[in-house]
Amino acid sequence: MKKKYFVLGYFGYYSNKLDGQTIKTRSLYKLLNDNIGSVDYFDTEILKKSKFNFIKLIFKLSVSRRLVYLPAQNNLKSFFPIVYFLSRVFRFKIHYFVVGGWLVNFLESNNFLISKLEKISMIYVETERMKRELKEKYNITNTVIIPNFRDNVQLSIEPNVNAKLKLVFMSRIHANKGIDMIIDFAKSTKLDVTIDFYGQISSEIEDYFLASVSEINIINYCGSLQPSEINSTLNKYDLLLLPTKFYTEGLPGAIVDAYFAGIPVIVTKWLHADEFVIHRQTGFIIPFENGDQEFHNYVEEIDMNRQLLSQLKINSLKESLKYTSEATWSVIEKTLNQ
């Protein structure tokens, strides 16, 4: 008997990798299990461990009716054509959930995928802009918007403002997440603030980052958080810092987590920033390049104006209601049987 739903993606269980890709994959799998029950899955991380795992995956695909697919770029380029071919052989439907905001640019140099993508059941994109540009550039219209979401998060009831401003970074500690801007700020500021970092450290930045933590008194590295720890940790802070250098990011999960914790954000103006951060209402948007002075100015303004900070926190908490699992499922359940 064919199983109705099957989730294929990078779960990262083998290495315990925690990033936007693995968290969204795990969250979507849990959402499906909670709402329809008994959903099978396969973690693409184990494909390289044994040839037997590939055979196991083919078997799982052959007995599925609907595939929920969350590929990263390499997987989409090299493996999606195989998955698409198998979908024709075994007659299962493909529901592709995009992680991030890169798909439109990616298809410019991988246009052989377009004819296949436009024929699958549905593509779930994170942003309005991506949905619009897929139609305008490639005539791909089988799309629906599903931004990042969080499952069963307890909302902060009354956002707290600390006497001493507490800043936080929570994401993968990677050069392209704007770590240098935060560290340069920490070196130069005269404000009485603290900056705590949470996240797995990328190897290429590890020496620089840990040396900075040792040298700068206001910086602390607090390790990695499990998803269940995020909300209760973040709501102790006042402002989340995410001056990303990834221009084609979709909706960073850290922003969603910040909103659920009732804290505003400072972000660079990446491609989709205006869709998810309301300037001076749920946070601040600084120039994508050379925004160091604006970064400093907004932190100083928040430190001087706690009434503004309180209002931003309230606004952020209200904004989180757009990203609940209930709101997400209300959209998915209308399309998943197509």
From TrEMBL:
A single GO molecular function term of this UniProt record: transferase activity
Sorted UniProt keywords: Transferase
Domain of life: Bacteria
Signal peptide region: none
Coiled-coil stretches: none
Gene3D superfamilies documented for this protein: Glycogen Phosphorylase B
UniProt entry tagged with the keyword Transferase: yes
Protein name in UniProt: Glycosyl transferase family 1
Originating species: Flavobacterium aciduliphilum
